[in-house]
Specification:
schiff base; binds erythose-4-phosphate; alpha/beta; about 55% helix; TIM Barrel; globular; cytoplasm; TSA/FSA_arc/bac; Aldolase_TIM
Length: about 220
């Protein structure tokens, strides 16, 4: 399973990248706004900076919602760097735009997936990645991990090639459950990734090893 970090914060991207396990980055308009990145020029520059930092797929989301505008905006984003993946919302015009980019060799990430039906449609359009938002599904009283499992079963059975990019991850446990459920990628903030490191027996064990080593030195 690939690991992407879900942030536009350069310090966190660097920290995750320094671990040596990072395969890419996802951003969205809310995450860009959180970092104070405003205006087209600043956004383009920020995406370029991220592409220079991380050698992997970098999702950059379109802000338009009509086919013509999404195609025009996506072309500009894709021109920033070969690793840019154009992130497109799961709407009718979005599906048409994904098909356009598929036919023109540009990678896409279909975002805001909340059902198996949406995942089937995005795969039919040839999306490189599809992003089910498992945390937001859990927040609404449904089961996000079950959706990952369902999509994984359908894609395997039907031979769809889109990669399942589990998004809206809230915890280290979510990451483990996504791996079990068949996600190809999980994208999350730095905290859940660092959470995977933690186990009290590791800390206790290491403290004892170091203490014993001192006795012999
Ligand atoms: C996915 O690409 C989105 O950027 C993200 O995972 C949304 O997560 P949230 O529900 O924590 O906002």
């Amino acid at each position: 399973m690939k690991f992407f970090i879900d942030t536009a914060n350069l310090a966190q991207i660097k920290e995750a990248n320094d671990l040596g396990i990072l395969d890419g980055v996802t951003t969205n308009p809310s995450l860009m706004a959180k970092e104070g990145i405003k205006g087209v020029e600043a956004q383009m520059q920020h995406y370029k900076t991220i592409c220079d930092l991380v050698d992997g797929d970098i999702s950059a989301e379109v802000l338009s919602t009509t086919y013509d505008e999404m195609v025009a905006e996506g072309k500009l984003l894709a021109a920033i760097h070969p690793n840019i993946v154009v992130k497109i919302p799961m709407i009718k015009d979005g599906i048409k735009a994904i098909k356009y980019f598929t036919d023109n060799g540009i990678k896409t990430n279909c975002t805001l997936i909340f059902s198996a039906g949406q995942a089937i449609l995005a795969a039919k359009a040839g999306a490189t990645y599809i992003s089910p938002f498992i945390g937001r599904i859990d927040d609404s009283g449904w089961d996000g991990i079950q959706l990952i499992q369902q999509i994984s079963n359908i894609y395997t059975m039907q031979g769809f090639e889109s990669q399942i990019l589990a998004a809206s991850i809230r915890s280290a446990n979510h990451i483990i459950q996504c791996a079990e459920a068949g996600a190809d990628v999980c994208t999350c903030p730095l905290e859940p990734i660092l959470g995977l490191l933690k186990h009290p027996l590791t800390d206790i064990g290491l403290a004892k090893f170091l203490e014993d080593a001192k006795k012999n030195s």
